[in-house]
């Protein structure tokens, strides 16, 4: 009976095959309106493609630590196993050197590679399908100019039967809908440009969106927070407590362009996104993203249980000993140096995983051309126990007007082990 149940569980898991997975460039074009064709001439197309590659954060995922840019082999942790990114340099044997424009367009729009194999959504084709054909071919034109690198793709570390790519056809049939972005005629061109970037090239809900048991994101839902790469990406919707409801459009522009603002600093995977991608976006595109995000409605605020006084007292003492020197007594931080913790949507997010991870392993503020000083925070994994980190998190999430769920020691222990094993 146990063997039968185990087999049934594995077959069910067959469906669970998804991941989750700077001085602005003077050569970058200004915001391109939807439907606008690329500028004439190959260099105009290549320059545009370079900008789009940065906007899509392609280099980050397709570059292994200390590896050649775009040569792949980066380990991407998912709830179902580790997926290794592919080589997208124009190497003819191990990269995309022999891919035609149609091959590349099909991969971006349908999630099917040159050999006809279905890709895992660690490659965010459910979002890239919204890109215009001109944008896709501009990306391909730029990638074709890169130095070819021979880098054989490493086998993904997925259990059977999740390692069978044919099963992705079932996943696509259930959860994937292809098709380019269709502008909303009731909205402004700026709003539509922002929606195109957020819902398409930026694939923001790949991290910031909620996922079902199979790892699929409902593309029609606003990005109200989700898990990715062992961290929790907070809500981008209009919630005041745990979203962007109290942020101004300028707050969003500054955060994406520099990695910090008066409310918070980027940490975890988002720090890399700012360094590798959003700091390079043109100001019109950053403003368009801000306009779109500020239009997202606030979800219904869920009730949060009251935290007991003993836990808060223990957490307060730990805060004084370990955090107050930098983040100050009232959690206000020091703008430009130490991010504020009070009234922080990231601190009050539905999950404390990112805050726990920062306390365990430390963090570094992104280094950008506009803000080149990337201050770092030490980790406390060797200094604080699971129970102490839980109490400290609970205090920070409920002090100075903050209000969020308490953190349990067992949850800290599980995340500590996950981060320790993370590739």
UniProtKB/TrEMBL annotation:
Compartment(s) where it occurs, according to its Swiss-Prot or TrEMBL record: Cell membrane
Entry annotated with the keyword Metal-binding: yes
Classification via InterPro entries: Cyt_c-like_dom, Cyt_c-like_dom_sf, Cytochrome_c-type_DH, Membr-bd_ADH_cyt_c
Domain Cytochrome c: 44-147, 189-297, 310-400
UniProt signal peptide: 1-19
Keyword Manganese annotated: no
Keyword list, A-Z: Cell membrane, Heme, Iron, Membrane, Metal-binding, Repeat, Signal
PROSITE patterns in alphabetical order: CYTC (PS51007)
Main subcellular localisation: membrane
PANTHER family membership: ALCOHOL DEHYDROGENASE CYTOCHROME C SUBUNIT, BLL4482 PROTEIN-RELATED
Protein name per Swiss-Prot or TrEMBL: Cytochrome c
Organism: Frateuria flava
């Amino acid at each position: 009976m146990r063997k039968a149940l185990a087999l049934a569980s594995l077959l069910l898991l067959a469906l669970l095959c998804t991941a989750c997975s700077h001085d602005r460039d003077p050569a970058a074009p200004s915001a391109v309106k939807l439907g606008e064709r690329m500028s004439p001439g190959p260099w105009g197309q290549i320059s545009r493609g370079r900008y789009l590659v940065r906007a899509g954060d392609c280099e980050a995922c397709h570059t292994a630590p200390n590896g050649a840019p775009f040569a792949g082999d980066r380990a991407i942790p998912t709830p179902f196993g580790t997926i290794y990114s592919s080589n997208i340099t124009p190497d003819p044997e191990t990269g995309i050197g022999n891919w035609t424009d149609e091959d590349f367009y099909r991969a971006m729009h349908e999630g099917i590679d040159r050999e006809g194999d279905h890709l895992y959504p660690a490659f965010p084709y459910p979002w890239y399908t919204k890109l215009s054909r001109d944008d896709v071919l501009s990306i391909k034109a730029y990638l074709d100019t890169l130095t070819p690198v021979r880098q054989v793709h490493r086998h993904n570390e997925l259990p059977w039967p999740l390692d069978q790519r044919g099963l992705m056809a079932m996943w696509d049939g259930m959860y994937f809908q292809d098709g380019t972005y269709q502008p909303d005629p009731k909205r402004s061109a700026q709003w539509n440009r922002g929606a195109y970037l957020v819902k398409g090239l930026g694939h923001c809900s790949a991290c910031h969106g909620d996922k079902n048991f199979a790892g699929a994101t409902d593309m029609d839902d606003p990005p109200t927070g989700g898990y990715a790469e062992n961290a929790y990406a907070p809500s981008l919707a209009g919630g005041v407590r745990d979203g962007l409801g109290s942020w101004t459009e300028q707050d969003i522009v500054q955060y994406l362009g520099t990695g910090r603002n008066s409310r918070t600093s980027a940490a975890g995977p988002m720090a890399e996104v700012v360094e590798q991608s959003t700091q390079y976006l043109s100001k019109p595109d950053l403003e368009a993203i801000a306009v779109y995000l500020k239009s997202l409605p606030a979800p219904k605020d869920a009730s949060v249980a009251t935290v007991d006084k003993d836990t808060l007292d223990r957490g307060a003492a730990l805060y004084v000993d370990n955090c107050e020197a930098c983040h100050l007594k009232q959690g206000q931080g020091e703008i430009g140096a130490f991010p504020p913790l009070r009234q922080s949507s990231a601190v009050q997010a539905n999950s404390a995983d990112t805050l726990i991870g920062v306390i365990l392993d430390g963090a570094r503020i992104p280094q950008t051309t506009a803000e080149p000083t990337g201050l770092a925070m030490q980790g406390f994994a060797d200094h604080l126990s699971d129970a102490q980190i839980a109490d400290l998190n609970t205090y920070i999430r409920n002090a100075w007007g903050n209000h969020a769920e308490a953190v349990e020691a067992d949850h800290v222990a599980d995340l500590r082990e996950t981060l320790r094993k993370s590739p």
